[in-house]
Amino acid sequence: MIASPVFKKIDKIVFNALSPQMIKKMSSAKVVTPELYDKEGYPVDGGLMDVRLGVIDPGLRCATCGSRLKECPGHFGHISLARPVIHVKYIRTILSFLRGTCQECSHALMDEKKAKRYIKELADLRQIKPDIYWDKVRKVMAEMTKQTKCPHCNAKQNHVVLEKPTTFVEKETQLRISPIEIRSRFEKIPDEDCELFGLNAESLRPEWMVLTILAIPPVTARPSITLESGERSEDDLTHKLGDIVRINQRLFENINAGAPEIIIEDLWDLLQYHVTTFFDNNISQVPPARHRSGQPLKTLSERIKSKEGRVRRNLAGKRTNYSGRTVISPDPMLELFEVGVPMDMGTVLTVPEIVTEWNLEYLKKFIERGPKEYPGANYVIRPDGKKKKITEETKETAMEELEPGYIVERHIMDGDVALFNRQPSLHRMSMMAHRIKMLKYKTLRLNPAVCHPYNADFDGDEMNLHIPQTEEARAEAELLLSVKNHLISPRYGLSIIGCVQDALAGNYLLTRSDMKMPFNEAVSLLNNSNVTDFSGLPNKDTVTGKEVFSALLPPDFSFTGESKAIDLGETGKEVLIRKGKLTKGVMDSNNLGQGAGMMLRKLHEMYGPNTTIIILGNIFKLGIQMLMKRGFTIALSDMDLPKKVRDGINAALDGAEEDVDNLINSFHAGELKALPGRSRNETLELKIMERLNAARDETGNIVAENADPKSHTMIMAISGARGKLLNLAQIAGSVGQQALRGQRISGGFKGRTLSCFKEGSLTPASRGFIKSSFSGGMRPDEFFFQAITGRDSLMDTALRTPKSGYLYRRLSNAMQDLKVEYDNTVRDVSKKIIQFRYGEDSIDVSKSEGGKLDIAPILEEVQR
Amino acid sequence: MKLPPKIKDDIKDATANLNVAQKKIVQDMVEKKYARMRVQAGECVGILSAESIGEPGTQMTLNTFHFAGVAEMNVTVGLPRLIEILDGRKSISTPNMEVYLQPPYNKGKDIKKIANEIKEIKMSELISEISLNIADSSLELSLDKAILEDLELDSKTVKTLLTKKLKAGFKAELAEEFLIIVRLSEKTKDLKELYRLKETIKGVYVKGVKGVTQVLPIKKGDEFIIITAGSNFKAILKLDYVDPIRTVTNDIFQIEEVLGIEAARSAIINEAYKVIQEQGLNVDIRHLMLVADTMCVNGKVKGITRYGIIREKTSVLARASFETPLRHIFNAAKIGEEDVLNSVVENVMINQPVPIGTGLPGLVTKVK
Question: I need a labelling partner for A471 at 20 to 30 A (CA). Which of A26, A373, A540, A582 fits?
Fold first, then answer.
């Protein structure tokens, strides 16, 4: 099936430094001139854009490998430096070598016996405990640095200091040690002695740290861009290399002309500077090399480093084709495992389909329709791997030559698998496989029940869609990533996808014992919710809501649970399902909702994901259809309270205020006794807060008792669809105390929060207690206090996101390669055992019931 | 199949009044259920745990303190605390202990006295006034009589304590009953020294448990315990009225030092779990166990930082992809390090399947 079944696999990567010999060997051109192009705009021979280094112009051929643009990977070149130059990135190692080796004989400053012992120790350490290898190296080096006399030749050792950035000076004589001197010293260091400095002579000889020849990255690694004006703009690296070549040539000329030493020294330093900034433009005490515009150049180090660098941007993260992104919107009539895809995406995203004898004619039709008409095809891939675009002109020939073995990239269609993703992808449910459903209009559509795992809403959120391109990818997407496999969260072992909002309110109303409807209405309700089997419905003229709901449940399903809300005419919160019939209790967020969803968990346990996702989808639709049939709306009048009740609330608040006044008075009179371990001020604050909280609860209770339970606002709160009783209390009763860092609001002006209060005032109103309600409207000072806490919570969110993001990144980096082995142990890559049994009992949380194996239902079954 | 001990016990308890045949059925059914719940080989449990802790991190609150009593005795909670635990920090921002007492003290006997004995007393608390006598180049410390009596100390013992702590060149003597004079000896007549001395005297340790800055006896259930701000686990366990089995500190390093690495692991799990529970979030304890085990696997608590467990990774590229890539690459070049590409990121980098989950099994087949 696949053109080339034998894959090459990279076995390992070895890190080494490039030796001067190696650089010469791999170099395909020696660069001698800073000029880039000649008058015709053709790259100059021996210049930085030499065609032997690769090509970036369409039409040119690489002089080394003969390939064209995009085929030629580019080739390294080299510059031979007129004078050796120090490699900044090894500056610390060079210093250690200068200090730790003899200035006369270049042996390590350590007697042979000891050195041998250390070398062996270090070699062992590298094998067994690589993490402390560098610590040990540092210790050994410190020991050598301390020596003032060479144990081999008895020569006295001068102390070498590093004068930043790149000069070494002998402290006693104040003489510079030139790179030439350093290099000649290092050349004499025996291979074994390098081990003492944490250097493997085969990967990096000490003298290689002093550069005599500089490798030049291929042109393809530093492509120039052509501006609209036809002007060429070179890459930062090319600029930097140009500087190096220019100075290098000047240095050559001056040396050959026998210029005074001082001029040569100056040029040498300049060369050192350019080479230094070529490697790293961010070294302290080195002024960064800049563009003419003043912005610092991005040289080698900056290309690799940080979030935008090569490693994290291009290697650890990649970009894909066959993907799309747009705004999302809800569609409750979609199944949970579907995703609605707009037509505009349909003609761009494709699925490769292999041509066989059986589907030849079928696929020809796609080609015939072409790239514009849906469902058509965009490309044909020949067995030799050549990809051909289908256009109006090439249609005919493509259809004619089509035969088994070809691949047609046809447009996505209903039922194809797609990965659906929303960032930030914080857990594995952030990317799930859905079935495509082509729809008109321009947005991606999803069932609102799957918003929760994605943490999506529809205030402008965008999501991504990826189309798997191989059979393996499709199979994995289906078997591992599909929505039905993610109903249970691996974080806590309970249902993460459940009913939300309307579906909860609808099911609550439906299953409440006051819901009765004629048989035909029940049938139409079920029919609208995609149910076609009405055998679950009792054959009566009027059926209850509970019976309608029960029609969705499997006939042998039994469940005992507890609801949040209390059914009308009931006292307990018990929910009973016996033999597929809901006999007692109401359905609300406790049993259907996300995060809790105990009934859903039980369904999943008994019937598996395939059935559960269908039932959940049906329950969801039933809830919505119920609300559509009944009608559901909220009004401001839901929050209106009778005058008597409002008086009650005011009385409660006044009472609290009076109590607080008394507390303050007794505090000022010195009668208030401090609680143990606290000062009198703290005691007062605590008591006031206690009293005010009591007042808030009191008003909340009054509102809850007097609010009309039939009002839709209350239905939402009771069923858990949206809003809490607290919200209602704040709207109708009183907003309550605004707390900042766990305390009442203080500060601002001297001794008071706002200039409208008396200095030193401790009354509830002056410290952020909002007596008014949202519906009644707040006073300006109250509004201000609310703004304070509002701002505080905004700041909290803004500051928290990066912190938790970093924690997450660290965690996943540290633990990404822990896996369960076949012997049930958890191990890391080096096969080190982290846990002998995963979680001490080998239970997979996403297959558990809230992290536990619940034996109660088994017991129930056995005893029955 | 071997059931975990916890489930075995559960079955035993639950089936106590069933007959043998029923017991057998229950046993079989539980075993079947357990078989379904087991983790599959190759499951990337590490990533799962990281996600399970990282994802709710965005929902946690920041900068909320939780007061355990006195204003100074607040405890860091929420995200900052979680970060602190997982960082494996040597010094935490709000160390505190819960000191359980042996009977009869746990019923409230001498509770105030014990609490005061635990609290660290510094010299500054005994001194009502320090005056600097420039002419004499001496410091006059007047002691507070009431406090001394409260703490059952006398001037003499204070003087001896002070003498022990003084550097050579100073001499302390008891001038009056509650007045100690500290003099510079003749040789070193430097007033600056005197000023410096003043500060050192203030910080001289007198009695109590070092590091405990605040104490608060509270009633927990039906017994009295003492909550402290500041933690010194080693010293507190030595006191004979302290119940060493139940007394805990929130300082993981002190636990490691005193009770060993297994205790430290439990402490990490407990502390992290407490943080998550307080925030009203639901994270399975298995995820925290795995994190704690990764931190403790080398026999020492290592934080999840570039200096901690990430540094210990064997793969160069894995380390480089986290932080400071250049350092890792240059060091690797020095010793000619090899990356055998058996963890996740490296394989992502070179576009090969990752050896985890479905990427794990290989298929051996003959190619014609």
Answer: A373
Spans of all domains in chain A = 31-75+217-312, 85-208, 323-486, 502-630, 637-793
Q: Which amino acid is it at B12?
A: K
The domain tally of chain B equals: 4
Rounded distance between C-alpha atoms, residue A805 and residue A798, angstroms? 12
Q: Which helix (H) or strand (E) holds A232?
A: strand A232-233
Among B207, B238, B273, the domain boundary falls at B207
Least Cα distance to A73 among A49, A48, A53, A58 occurs for A53
Q: How near does any CA of chain A get to the CA of B255, in Å?
A: 21
Mutate which of A795, A815, A832, A860 to test chain B, going by most B C-beta atoms within 10 A? Answer: A815
The strand order across the sheet containing B170-176 reads: B127-133, B138-143, B179-184, B170-176
Cα separation values, A65 from A71, A74, A220, B329, Å = 10, 9, 14, 30
Residue of chain A minimizing CA distance to B83: A807
Count Cβ atoms below 10 Å from residue A423 Cβ, excluding itself.
14
Count each helix (H run) and each strand (E run) in chain B, helices first.
Answer: 16, 13
More confident residue, A155 or A465: A465
Side chain identity at A416, as an amino acid letter?
D
The neighbouring-strand residues paired with A358 are none
* Binned average pLDDT, 10 residues per bin, chain B of 368 residues: 84 83 87 90 92 88 57 74 90 88 80 82 79 76 77 76 71 75 67 75 81 81 84 89 90 92 94 89 92 91 87 85 87 87 88 87 76
Q: Do the Cβ atoms of A235 and A222 come closer than 8 Å?
A: yes
Q: Give the other-Cβ count within 10 Å of A655's Cβ.
A: 14
Q: DSSP H helical segments within chain B, as ranges? A: 5-14, 20-37, 45-57, 78-87, 111-118, 123-126, 145-150, 155-165, 191-202, 233-238, 252-259, 261-278, 285-296, 316-320, 325-335, 344-349
Query: Do the chains contact at A17 and B334, CB–CB below 8 Å?
Result: yes
B69 contacts A858? CB cut-off 8 A:
no
Question: pTM, whole model, 2 decimals?
Answer: 0.89
| Residue B311 CB coordination number (10 Å) | 18
CATH of domain A31-75+217-312: 4.10.860.120
Is B317 part of the contact surface with chain A (CB cutoff 8 Å)? yes
Which residues on A lie below 8 Å from B273 (Cβ)? Answer: none
The structure tokens 């031979």 sit at A80
Length of chain A: 864
**pLDDT confidence of residue A786:** 93
* pLDDT, position A137: 85
Q: Token pair for residue A736?
A: 């309550």
Cα B250 to Cα B98: distance, rounded to the nearest angstrom: 9
Report how far Cα B33 is from the mean position of its chain's Cα atoms: 38
Q: Annotate A10-66 with DSSP letters as a single string.
A: ---EE--PPPHHHHHHH-S-B---S--B-TTSPBPTTSTT-GGG---STT---TTT-
Are the beta carbons of A593 and A565 closer than 8 angstroms? no
Question: Quick check: A305 and B33 CB within 8 A?
Answer: no
Domain that holds residue B337: 316-359
Q: Are A755 and A795 in contact (CB under 8 A)?
A: no
DSSP, collapsed to helix, strand or coil, labels residue A854 as coil
Query: What secondary structure does DSSP assign to B109-146, as a single string?
Result: TTHHHHHHHHS-EEHHHHEEEEEEETTTTEEEEEE-HH
ipTM of the complex: 0.89
pLDDT value for B91: 86
User: Which CATH topology does A502-630 take?
Assistant: Enzyme I; Chain A, domain 2 (1.10.274)
